[in-house]
Amino acid sequence: MAMGGASFPFQWPEEPADAGLDDVTLPPLPTAVPDAAGIAAAYYADAATYMHAMQHMEALPDFAAALAAMRREEEEAAGIRLVHLLMSCAGAVEAGDHAGASAHLADAHAALAAVSPTSGIGRVAVHFTAALSRRLFSPPTPSPPPAAEVADGAFLYHRFYEAGPYLKFAHFTANQAILEAVQGCRHVHIIDFSLMQGLQWPALIQALALRPGGPPSLRLTGIGPPSPPGRDDLRDVGVRLADLARSVRVHFSFRGVAANRLDEVRPWMLQVSQGEAVAVNSVLQLHRLLADDPSADDARPRAPIDAVLDCVASVRPRVFTVVEQEADHNKPGFLDRFTEALFYYSAVFDSLDAASGGAGDAAAEAYLELEICDIVCGEGADRRERHEPLRRWRDRLGGPRAGAGLAAVPLGANALRQARMLVGLFSGEGHCVEEAEGCLTLGWHGRPLFSASAWRAAEENNQSDSCNADGSRRAAAAPVRRAISAAAARAWVSQS
Amino acid sequence: MGGAGAGAPRRPGEAVEVTELELRIQLLGGGGVGGAGSGSYNINDNADILAEILSRLDGRSLAAAACVCRLWAAVARRDAVWEALCLRHVGPPAPPAAAGPATRAVVAALGGYRRLYRLCLGPALDRLAQAQAQAARAHHLSLSLSLSLFSIDCYERLGGGGGGGPSAGKRGRQQPSSLLFLCKPVDVS
C-alpha cells in the first residue's frame, strides 16, 4: 500500500461500518486507492489508527476527501460485482451451460478492468478468471515438459518460502515435533516425502547439534521427482546438507529416492534399519494422493493415499508430521469448490500482501496460481490439488475406521510458542497461530490457512519403543553399522 | 567478517589477535597517548576491560564504537563481545547447555555471533520494537529460533536454494535469502 505524499502524512483508514458488506458470504475486499494526492486506504486498521485519522480529517479540504471516498466505494462495488460474476460463471459451468458461462466470463473480464490490479481482490480475480477461461475455451493441453516444470516449480517454491510465513511455520513446527519425539535416541532416520531444496533440515541439524546429551547420528531419506539426465538434484541437496552437518559435527548420511508419485515408493526402498528412530515428514504432499470423494466411505476403492499410509505404518515411525492446507477443495461439485477456493486464496493473497509490506510478490503468487489453475481446471484424475480440512485428515489418519494404525501426538506448548514467535517476526499483524486439540493452525485474521499435526505408530503389545532398550541391544553392532553407513555416504557422495 | 567458515576457523581470528596485541604493545611503548601523569588511566591500556565494557552495549552502539579507532575496532570484532550481546537479548536460556561451549562451536561453524546478530537478531529486534502492540513485545526471541533461521541462511550461502543451476542462471541470478523478510520495510498500518 502506498504511503501518503508530502502534503498528507497520515493514512486514510477503511471504515468497515460504512461498507455495508455482508462479510459472511463474501471474501474480504481490501482496497488500495492511490490517487493523484497519494492517499492510500489502510485495510486492517484498528481503533487507535482510526481515531487518530479522524482527528486529522477536519484539516482536509473537503474536495479531496469526497473524491477519495467516492473512488473507494467504486472500487468496492466493482469488486463485489466481479465476485458475483465469477460465481455465476462457475454456476453456469457446473450446470453445463457453456453459452451462459462464456457470457458471464466476458462480463467478468470487463469488470476486471475496473478493479485496480494492485488490490487483493484484483490479483486473485485475475488468476481465477484466467483459470475459468482456460477451463472453458482451451482444449485439454498435454502436460508441460517435465524438466521445465520441475525447475520452475523449485524456483517458485523457494520464492513462496521467502515471501510468507507458511512454509517456515510448517518446517519449524514439524522440526519441533521431530525433536521432541526422538529425544534420547542415538540413531535417527528421517524420511522426507518431498525434499525440494531441503530448506527444512538445516534448522533440525543445528537443533540436534545443540541438544543436551549430544547429537545423534542422523540419516535422511529424501524423496523427490526424478531429475533430468545430467543432473542429480537430490544428490546435490544431500551433499549440501552433509556439508552443513559436518561443520556442526553431526554425523549425517543421505539417501535420495526418485519417484514421480508417492505411492510408487515401497517400504524396501526406504531401507529402515532395526533400532533407529524413524520420523516421516510430509509437508503439503498428502492431499495430492486423494481420489474423488465418494459419498459412502465404506465402499470406497483404494486410493493412492491408502497405499502411502500403509507404507508409513509399516516403518513404525516415532513421529509422522503432516502439514496441509486448511481448506475444503475436494468437493465433487464445481461451484462449491470454486467458491471455497475463491475465499481461501483471497485470504492467502491478503496475507502475502501484508507479509511483503504491500508490495506483493509475483513469484509467490505464480506458485499459488498453479494451484488455483489445477483446482479450477482439473477434473477427475487430472486434479492433483485436493485440499481437505483438518477434521477430515484426523478421521483419515487416526479415526476408528482408519486402517492406518496411527495415533495422534499433541504438538505441545513449545511448538506453539515458537510458531507465535516466528509469525510475530513477519509484518502485518493479521497472522495468528491457534491450537486445536493438539494441532496448530496458522491463520489470517481468524481464517485458518495451514494446519500442522503429528502422529505416531499405534502401540502394539510386543513392540518396545524405548530408544535405550534398542540402543543397548544393538551396542555391539553399532560401530560396525556406523562405519558401513559412513562408507555408504562416502560412496554416495563420490558417485559419478 | 567476524566468524570464519568451517574451513579456516583459526586464521582470521589469529590475525585479529595479533593486530590487537601489536596495538597494545604500540600503545604501551608509545608512553600513553592520553595520560599525562602516572596516576591517570587510559581506557585503551587494557583491552580486556575495554571488551567487558563494549559487551554491555547494544548493537548499534557497538557498531559505532568500532569506528572510533583501530584498537576499538579490533576489540569490537571479537566474537565474545557479540556473544554477550546476543545472549543478553534473547530470552532466559532454559536448558543449561544453551550458553555453553557447544553453542559457541555451533555458532562459530555457522558464521559467528557477529553475523548472527547482523542477519537475525538485529533486524528481528528492530522489527519487534516497531510493533506497536504490547502483546507483540512480549514475544521476545529465543536463541533456538534465531539459530534456526541463521542455520537456514548458512545453508543457502553454501549454494543451496537456487532452484536448479541452469534455470536460475537464465533468470538473472537473484541470490535468494530466507532472512530477507526481516529486512523488508515494516508496514505499520
Automatic annotation (TrEMBL), chain A:
Residues 377-456 are annotated as: SAW. Residues 157-222 are annotated as: VHIID. Keywords: Transcription, Transcription regulation. A motif (LXXLL motif) lies at residues 286-290. Pfam families: GRAS. It comes from the Eukaryota. Transmembrane segments: none annotated. InterPro entries: TF_GRAS. A motif (VHIID) lies at residues 188-192. Residues 236-268 are annotated as: Leucine repeat II (LRII). Belongs to the GRAS family. This is DELLA protein DWARF8-LIKE. It comes from Miscanthus lutarioriparius.
TrEMBL record, chain B:
GO terms for cellular component: SCF ubiquitin ligase complex. Signal peptide: none annotated. Residues 48-88 form the F-box domain. GO terms for biological process: gibberellic acid mediated signaling pathway; regulation of gibberellic acid mediated signaling pathway. It holds the Pfam family F-box-like. This is F-box domain-containing protein. It comes from Miscanthus lutarioriparius.
